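Hi everyone,

Forwarding the result from last night's run.
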Amino acid sequence: MKVLLLNGSPHKDGAVAEGLKEAQGVFEQKGIDTLWIHIGNRAIRGCNACEKCYGKGRCVYEDKANEVIDAMKDCDGIIIGSPVYYAGINGSLKSLLDRVFNAGSDVFKYKAASCIVNARRAGTTAAYDDINKYFGISGMVISPSRYWNMTHGNSAEEVIQDEEGMGTVRVIANSMSWLLKVLEDGKRKYGIPERYPVKGTNFIR
């Protein structure tokens, strides 16, 4: 089993990474492999609704978006980490996720999902909500937690001192370790739910 750890911060080893590292430690104890992808600090284009990805399973623009889609083909779950900018997720991460989940939605269905958001002080619950919407619309199974999936700190060193936040991260990773086994067993025994055809209805005719 393998979990993708997606660092949505421009800082590779900053506060967001510290939370993901804590999760990685739990996965290692459970014998679950991890794969890291850092979005970096270069511009990431947003989705321009060209619709050329439909039926192809990848975006026409070759960058981090397709790297994430390709990685998820071999992963059983994902944890997305993001800093909080103006009570929302990082703009570059938002651009990436719009394209990843639009072009590669099929590789996410019925896989485990969770997120960790970090802020100095506030805005975390709104950012947490931002990410969970991608999971829900893509048919993912959200791993249970014991509190909102957040850490607090203005640096990696401060996040380490957030004992409650880091404890929540450990719960998230432990729950996902269990969920991965449940999903694997369930898929083997029962397959996956039938996918009904979509009948789009526009409100303006």
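Residues 73 and 102 are 15 Å apart (CA to CA).

Cheers,
N.
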